[in-house]
Amino acid sequence: MKNKSxxxxxxxxxxxxxxxxxxxxxFEKDPVQNILKGYVIATLFFEPSTRTRxxxxxxxxxxxxxxxxxxxxxxxxxxxxxxxxxxIITVANYSDLIVMRHPIEGSxxxxxxxxxxxxxxAGDGANQHPTQCLLDLYSIxxxxxxxxxxxxxxxxxxxxxxxxxSLLMAMSSFxxxxxxxxxxxxxxxxxxxxxxxxxxxxxxxxxxxxxxxxYADIVYMTRVQKxxxxxxxxxxxxxxxxxxxxxxxxxxxxxxxxxxPLPRVNxxxxxxxxxxxAYYFQQALNGVYTRQAIIAKILGLK
Amino acid sequence: MKDKTLSVSAIQEGTVIDHIPANSLFDVINILKLxxxxxQITFGSNFLSxxxxxxxxxxxxxxxxxxxxxxxxxxxxxxxxxxxxxxxSVTEKHIVEVPxxxxxxxxxxxxKCITNNENVSTKFKVVDKQxxxxxxxxxxKITDRKHLEIL
Lengths: 302, 151
Ligand SMILES: [Zn+2]
Hints:
The structure holds two protein chains of two kinds. Chain A is an alpha/beta fold. Chain A folds into two domains: 9-128 and 287-298, Rossmann fold (3-Layer(aba) Sandwich); 130-284, Rossmann fold (3-Layer(aba) Sandwich), CATH 3.40.50. Chain A has nine helices and nine strands. Chain A has a five-stranded parallel sheet, covered by helices on one side. In chain A, strands 2-1-3-4 form a four-stranded parallel sheet, sandwiched between helices. Chain A is globular. By secondary structure, chain B is mainly beta. In chain B, a hairpin with a 3-residue loop joins β2 and β3. Chain B contains three helices and nine strands. Bound molecules: zinc ion. Zinc ion (ZN) binds next to loops of chain B.
């Protein structure tokens, strides 16, 4: 994967993911290394995402690299009407790798075609956010010891949730069983279900959160947002039905871990936080190691 | 059958494109850039057709298309048939084939796609040839026939 851009989770093979996860585990043991000394990494955030940006910048700083860039489009030349192409070509002159987040879908793919240096997509609108997906895989592998044959419950907004779609596609290489738990309006799109059918992967759909918890090795929570409902009454009906509470975790498997891409609003009750099965804060920390691994692999340093 | 024989016999050397859905005629003209050609061209539309309801026919004198050129019209006229004419008679027949990739012909239906926001030409992978479903190379969204718009 040296010099290759990471735009979409589909760009990398199963072997590539596994190699990244292995390197991420090395960084978890030894996170401060000087391998990026002399390297300049650009972080171009055309829309603000403090959490993702800090995770990348922490990863780069721990490896001794320098960061240039901007934190939102308002403080850059984009505001003056510069095209994405011109911005990327210019910044590629000053850097060894570009991390970019952009509200327009497909922007990262396009950037990878005009850039002289590799692009790492840190989110292009509702389309892809592959580093989130890789850190999810890392968290699953770390807590379960394997990615193979797991029972994974995806909860909340399965229709628009970019992270659940990427996770579903990536996990499909590892023979999982899925339980989809969502309000009827936000069910998993049929395109994803038929791709599972093609691969012979089992999945079950539920509207009741508690139905599938007892079987799960991983529960992946996402937020049910009001603006996704065409009928506000529908939202009012379901808004409290997809909140995970500590009491619901009774009788679940010992190895169960709860993941969430964060930020959380109220979909996981704070009384879950002290349960050892809550893993979402550790998951965010894993993002730093995973991003260290992605950058080091792409630059050919690991 | 009669009107077909009549239309075909009207050119000496060139191409006749038959079985174009009548409402796709202008898309075909546009895609093949027929408005830029200097050759003699005859358009006929609203002929009754059992298969298509109303069909259109285009006859182009002195022009032969490459397979790549002609397959571009498959998005709007998937049943189109080509007759290659030499010396007033049909010497070859072709049917159009939906290509694996489509570049710069169709518009991505996703308003948030980069191709609808910057000067980037569209590129699709054809994921369903029968029903025409195009997956955008950039935003990865599917544009289906119902939402297909020719640029
Ligand atoms: Zn698109």
